Fold this sequence. Notes:
Chain A has 187 residues and is mostly helical. Chain A has helices at residues 8-17, 33-38, 40-49, 70-77, 82-95, 100-111, 115-122, 131-139, 145-165, 168-175, 178-181; strands at 30-32, 55-59, 62-67. Chain B has helices at 35-40, 42-55, 110-123, 135-141, 150-156, and strands spanning 7-11, 31-32, 75-80, 86-95, 98-106, 129-133, 163-164, 170-175, 179-187.
Amino acid sequence: MAIQPADSAAKKKKAKAQPIRTGVPAAFSVMNIRAARENLPGIVDAVTTGRSRGVAVGRRGKPNALVVSYEVYESLIGRGDKKRKLALLITEELLGDAPQHIRMPAVEELSRLPMDDLVRLFKLDSLSLPPGELNAVRARMAHPEALDRLCQRFELAVTLSLAREAGLYETAEDLSGSALTEPVSGE
Amino acid sequence: MNPALFLVAKLPSPSDEECYEWVTSDGAPFESIDPLDFVAGAEARVLFDLYRDAYSALGPALNVSQPAELAEYNRWVIVRDARGAIMAFVCFKTTSWGLKLGLVATNDSPEAKDAVKTILHRTLAEDAVYAEVSNGVEAALRGHVPMVGVSAAQEILAGMRIEPDEDGLHYRRTIRNVGPKKKLMVGRPLSSE
């Protein structure tokens, strides 16, 4: 099954969703040390839940240190399976700030691919490429379904990101539970 | 409590004596599934329909529009009736303070509402489970779950502007698409220490 051309609505959605994958290290905004000290619990929450890929801390806008999840540190710096490291890099690059529970299944899935497939995916800069370009990569992969699944995960991450930006979850959580005590006809 | 896991537990109607320690574990009765398979499955459609039916009358501000949006929450407790049909669910998301209550829905039957109340009473009494509540939910939980002081709530809600109440427990904050609301944090969130 070839990857279908994205319709205009999907393109618009993807264009809006670009911020979810802007967190390459060079683009980290730098938090000064005092702000980092005051916001440390929030920073730890953001990097462990995947809302942020990492937070750079430094002086006068120059990064001196980077706060990332322990899992990211261990996977990239520690000794271990090279395919898993590559899978993690691909996922970090292509799924950006998607929640951990969306990214990590992708890491598991990609870790099982042959190295040639992983290298092809590693060369991708984005999953929002024109369908022709994605199909060209797909055609050279031994397990092209892995690229399809990665694209589906990207779409899912975009959906969640847009809903979050619109305040959907905050609103829904506030209303949620009303059904416990109130008639569904509302107030 | 691994935030990388997407877990679903399917239960019969709970009893008052049941222990919910497992809710912060990654093991049984939770089953780990891929969120991609979850949102594509028939069960997510049923959960979404249950949610939509329960809340569609509460106003246009609520705009959950597709089952995929449910994948924001990575721990699901699904309650089935005696015939095996889904009658309620409670879902949570993992944060560094523990499991935060997300959405709750029932089929509006007294049995389903009782089941959800029991689950909330029991889970919110566990360490590392918490919720931000107001109005009717607060009334349903009062006396059954611990309350969190406003200073701890403020730390957990870092970055959000809140106005503490004089009672040291409640606070007001603006909920997007809703407006200012009086809220209370309940449960046992982890401390930042």
